[in-house]
Specification:
- The protein is an alpha+beta fold.
- It has one domain.
- Helix content is 27%, strand content 36%.
- It contains three helices and eight strands, in the order βββββααβββα.
- The chain has a four-stranded mixed sheet with strand order 5-7-8-6. Strands 1-2 form a two-stranded antiparallel sheet.
- Strand 3 and strand 4 form a beta hairpin.
């Protein structure tokens, strides 16, 4: 894993996906955010455009919103948001 200024540059999202920290817009609890209709609509729109990546068969607990070169992408993770933050930030 590469280091940047003494900290890791990449965040482990699940067993198959690693993301550059600079691309992360936010890490969200999937249960809390999908309660609201606007959030469900936003995620549905991203899914229709093929912008959601989910490689795990496990129950999703969070999603990571990334932006790279102006393109949005959501990665689904089986880890709680606090777990991702504590491990990699």
């Amino acid at each position: 894993m590469l280091c940047w200024g003494g900290f890791f540059m990449y965040v482990t999202i699940d067993s198959n996906n690693v993301v550059d920290k600079r691309d992360i817009v936010g890490i969200f609890d999937i249960d809390k955010l999908t309660v609201f209709k606007n959030n469900r609509s936003y995620l549905s729109n991203l899914e229709k455009r093929g912008k959601i990546v989910s490689s795990e068969e496990k129950l999703p607990k969070s999603f990571v919103l990334c932006e790279n070169s102006g393109e949005e992408e959501v990665l689904i993770s089986p880890f709680m948001p606090i777990t991702i933050v504590k491990r990699d930030f």
